Amino acid sequence: MGAKGLLIILAILAVATLVYFLAPKGKKRDGVVQALFLAPMVVTFAITVGIPLVVGVFYSLTDWNGLSFKNFVGLGNYIKIFSQNDYVYSLLITMGFTVVNVIAVNVLAFLLALLGASDVRFSKFFRAAYFVPNLIGGIVLGYVWQFIFNKIFTLAFPVSMLTDPNLAIGAIIIVSVWQYSGYIMMIYITGLQSVPKDVLEASGIDGASGLRTLFSIKMPMIANTFTVCLFLTLVNSFKQFDLNFALTAGAPARILAGKAIQSTEFLALNIYNTAIAKSNYALGQSKAVVFFVILAAVSLTQVYFSKKTEVEM
Description:
By secondary structure, the chain is mostly helical. The protein folds into two domains: about 5-60, no CATH class; about 80-310, Orthogonal Bundle (MetI-like fold). Helix content is about 75%, strand content about 5%. It has helices at about 5-20, 25-60, 75-80, 85-115, 125-130, 140-150, 170-195, 195-205, 210-220, 225-240, 240-245, 265-275, 280-310; strands at about 255, 260. It has a two-stranded antiparallel ribbon. The relative contact order is 0.11.
């Protein structure tokens, strides 16, 4: 740490100490203490999220080239991106992938959680085995499965799924579900284990079947777990990048409206290719802002309705 950094820290500590001792005793002083403890988190959030977000929105309204800008173009970049077939296509397939992936991951994860939380033999081994794929990074996982699709599956099928525009997204879904289900499974297991045993015993005494207990007792009592799992899966699916990049890199191409576009280029990869590969930073930033707005709106909507369902259940 340089001398300037040390001086800044000492100055902050001095100001914090001065504010603490000048504040009157009682609730006001407690409030000052709470604010001082919260300040590092607020400052960190502002530096890493708040300020870049504001600056990014500003740059999306200019002709920014990554270093500077000359003109203020207003909504020109936003109008341009929605007139591009490849961007609209990426947006649509990302939404479609998100819907299918969220359903598939949560259904499979919940079924695995029922097995992992049961008293069957080797249940702990099953938990560990199902969780292992989540420990593998998306880039490594993509290249491993690329080999499997191109070299192993082609022994039984004439064409690799990765070379067919109609099947390549299905390949990404398969790998994504295989990777992420184990992580969501562990959250479901935690929720299932939190269900009071005396309630389950009471349902057994009353003669409730296993399915009746599952749908009428276990699932309603872990409604908050469903909210968390749906939120995590939704955000992870919508932001899918590393697996998409390593497994297909957007390929193979397909013809849409007379033009060749990448058939598996999800939104995050489209933004990356626009800003980094094509060096069109202003346009890429505009796409990133739209990406943030859509993701925030969808996530908040999902949490709102999930919370509402919790109350009803």
